[in-house]
Amino acid sequence: MGDTQDWTAAPGAAERARSVLAAAWSCAVTADGAREEYVGAHTVTDDGAVRLAVPDDSALLTAAVCAPRQEPSAVLEFADVAPVPVRGRIRSRLYLAGWFAPDRGTLLFRPTRVVLRQPSGAVVIDLGEFAAARPDPLAEAEARLLTHLADAHPDAVERLTRLVRPESLHAVTRVLPLAVDRHGLTLRIERTRAHGDVRLPFHAPADDVAQLTERMHALLAQAGAAACPRALQRQRADGDG
């Protein structure tokens, strides 16, 4: 379920895809009808190719050696999982179709098709844009930042809801941080039978964690000047009762 808050200043699809790729710790590889899961085995080159370390006796290595060069021989899948335990934790999935080639004791995967599947739908990303894009500068720190915000500063999350339109908080049961990038923070608004997301844009992009801290303080100062939403007032009263 979507909410009415406007979404502004968000990363483009190519940047989002590169961010998923940069932050992912595991990937699933489907080749020759078989599917294998690899954890902590891949790295990413500057142009978005994926280098995968596999055992010498891996069936995937054999398939890569035998496959015709330049033909799609595998599909790689990366899940973008919210670090905070919200309802519906898979924020998006990234699919790379392409071919493997042995390279310096590893397998180098070159994508020939890139698809980012989000709740709003699937987007096919231009290969040139994907190769040229760079991950969001906060992508690799996002999990640590969001879990710290949720676990150590729930009061700050509640205060930020003062920046959310009242209609988006109707029947709210829980609000948690879902995502953060250099352009803004996204909150997950959970209700009894549905949920939606609201984006709080920063006044300027944050290119590192220090700048993010300043942007968050600015949001909190803005929230401090706003009234507490009635929905959360009722929720707090119910919890005290």
UniProtKB/TrEMBL annotation:
SUPFAM superfamilies: FMN-binding split barrel
Pfam families registered for this protein in UniProt: DUF2470 (PF10615)
Domain annotation DUF2470: ranges: 142-219
Superkingdom of source: Bacteria
Protein name from the UniProt record: DUF2470 domain-containing protein
